[in-house]
From TrEMBL:
Entry-linked InterPro entries: YlxR (IPR037465), YlxR-like_sf (IPR035931), YlxR_dom (IPR007393)
Top-rank taxon: Bacteria
UniProt xrefs under Pfam families: YlxR
The organism of origin for this protein: Ammoniphilus oxalaticus
Protein name per UniProt: YlxR domain-containing protein
Domain YlxR: 9-82
Gene3D superfamilies noted in UniProt: YlxR-like (3.30.1230.10)
């Protein structure tokens, strides 16, 4: 039997290829709203971040999410995304 390939995606901050299920997807909806996508199935353009806290900070400082999602992301949206990201990493 053939082994099933594991889908890989690249973290926009650290540029590492990581299995898709270990990454967190950030999506830009067709209406232009940017949010975390824990299911990975939201409609719109997506970018992936690994679970490392440094990667989120790096993506923010390098504007990696802005480039990957083809949109300008305001500072308050980054703050909201960071809170959502923390909730996804520590769901307590």
């Amino acid at each position: 039997m053939k082994r099933r390939k594991i889908p890989l995606r690249k973290c926009v901050a650290c540029q590492e290829m990581i299995p898709k299920q270990q990454l967190i997807r950030v999506a830009r909806s067709p209406q232009g709203e940017v949010s975390m996508d824990p299911t990975g199935k939201a409609a719109g353009r997506g970018a992936y971040l690994c679970g490392n806290k440094d990667c989120f900070s790096l993506a923010k400082s390098r504007k990696a999410l802005d480039r990957a999602l083809n949109t300008a992301i305001p500072e308050e949206v980054y703050e909201r995304l960071e809170l959502e990201w923390i909730e996804l990493k520590d769901p307590e």
